[in-house]
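Input record, target 12 of the design panel.
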């Protein structure tokens, strides 16, 4: 099946980073990450969600396994903030250029500080949103972290 390339896919290609795209069926609402992993027939420990937060003056991106929850205290410490909070769903598109359920760490309007959960170190490849609901991209962890200038920290509960 050949789907239209997303911005995230184009950026990976421009940077010569190999990836595999995976499509999954969905309705009007984006399914949760656990459902996405099941629809793709993938181990949920390899499927990561992208969350966007706001600190005092900046936005921060956190990439973590779909079955885990973001620990806001650890997240704030990882980016040198006193605290961070999730941005409202209504702000996702304005801040990132993406919509809820299709938010990829690759290709946001701006390259925000990005932190990957340390769980990514136990797998060679992870699966993240391809930048559109219904599309996921699987790629090498270290290449993805390097591409977005990310860091790896303990950020989950």
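The sequence produced for target 12 reads:
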């Amino acid at each position: 099946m050949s789907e239209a390339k997303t911005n995230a896919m184009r950026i990976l290609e421009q940077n010569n980073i190999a990836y595999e795209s995976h499509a999954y069926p969905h309705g009007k609402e984006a399914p949760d990450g656990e459902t996405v992993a099941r629809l793709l027939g993938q181990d949920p420990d390899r499927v990561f969600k992208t969350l966007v937060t706001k600190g005092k003056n900046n936005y921060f991106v956190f990439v973590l396994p779909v079955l885990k929850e973001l620990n806001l205290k650890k997240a704030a410490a990882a980016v040198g903030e006193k605290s961070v909070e999730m941005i409202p769903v209504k702000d996702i598109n304005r801040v990132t250029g993406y919509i809820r359920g299709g938010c990829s760490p690759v290709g946001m309007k701006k390259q925000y500080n990005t932190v990957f959960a340390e769980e990514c170190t136990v797998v060679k490849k992870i699966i993240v949103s391809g930048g559109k609901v219904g599309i996921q991209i699987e790629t090498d962890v270290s290449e993805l972290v390097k591409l977005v200038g990310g860091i790896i920290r303990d950020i989950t509960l």
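The chain has five helices and eight strands.
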